[in-house]
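Before we proceed, please read the two lines closing this message. Tell me what the token row says about the fold.
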Amino acid sequence: MTARNPEFQRQLWLNWRPSLLAWSLGLSLLVLALPFALSSPANLPGSLSSTAMAGLWLASAIYGSVLAGRSLAEEASQNTWDWQRLSALSPWQMAWGKLLGAVLPAWLYVLWFAIAIAGIATVWVQEISVVHIVGLAILWGMSLQTWAMNSVLMSWGQQDLPVNRRRAALLPLLLLFFIPGPFLGRVYDGIFNNNAEPVLWWGMDVGGLGMAYLAGALMLGLGLLGLWRMLCTRLDVHTLPWAWPLGIAVSGIFAGGSFSTGLPAFLGSTAWIALLGTIYVALQHMSQHLRAWRQVQWSVSQRHWREALEALPLWPVSLLLGLIVSIVVIFTPDAHEVGVMGALGSFSVLMYLQLLRDCLLLTGFALLAGKLKSPMVSFVIAWLILNIAAPLLAYGLGGVNGAMLVQPVMSAWFQSIDSSDAPAVWNSVLPWASLGVQILVVAGWVIHVFKDRVLGFARDNAAARI
């Protein structure tokens, strides 16, 4: 590993010292000594095992995540990131070198607490699965560590320096702490109780433990995929945008299997995950849209089609994927789709068309960066007016049909409209027609801004070279 990965060797040089073995062992023994001083002899085995398991999870998930995130944050604070970009390190070498080398102190604590758990189970004959306790701690610990590194990269601005978005960037890491919540009880039963209720995934009884391993593997895989993609961007390694749709599809497979209703559940889950993912990447990368579209325009003008795809923002990729899947859902609808298909044709398709309108609106404001003081604030104000204030005003003036004229998706929640109030064909056609007109209007405005900010920029550069 050290010979093939210079980053891992560098992290060992920064973090490893022989005294670390003694310090970690001493602190672990000090923590394990607490139950001997605070618990009665009758409760000692349970308290000791609980303390060892708590130490194991704290070391792998909390301490390891802090070390992993700090290894990237220090690159920016110590001004060494430019050296990393000039080196011959690949994104995978950077990711695994930091993930294994920078977190070495945490893995030492994991080792001592794992040995303690095995010893407690042997001496007191505790009916606990040492392999599963340690295995899940390692799996979920590495998952959280990868997402901690992702959170640091998300908090960096265009100049590769931390900006005032650290709290928002920590949101994915915080969410991961709550993801195990729905099946923690079943995981506990799987470790301590052999009569646990069945947990189905794609029709197979994987149990609570199996679901925990599947979810942990999913989080680790998505974390590594996202880390590789963002390191490619930061290290100026050009790549096609295949990792983002792959992550959405894998998430859809996991979510669809959890519902155990077959292909419709997979398609529906993928469509909604792609929708949420499109919203996230569109907002997260809004400050980079102007530069990205200028790069796309230049690559197309030079007929460098691969470079154009590499520079393309991610939101059109996931939006196209979700729109295709939502159209397929029409032919294999799930229960929710069947409930609204009678009046709308497809609620998912309608949602994606509205998302297209909002993403076009966001792109238009993003292209105005430099002319507007804050494109994000301007977009949020416009979005609130278009999706909340205007529909409420239209509802007060024209009722449900007035609200549908401004906010078509609202029609999905008004399927019980009396036919005497409005013909069924009106409720069916109005949302599509209204949304189509809105998309055309917003697209026309975006094309006008695109000509000024992107094509105009290219013309100015060409004139300057002459």
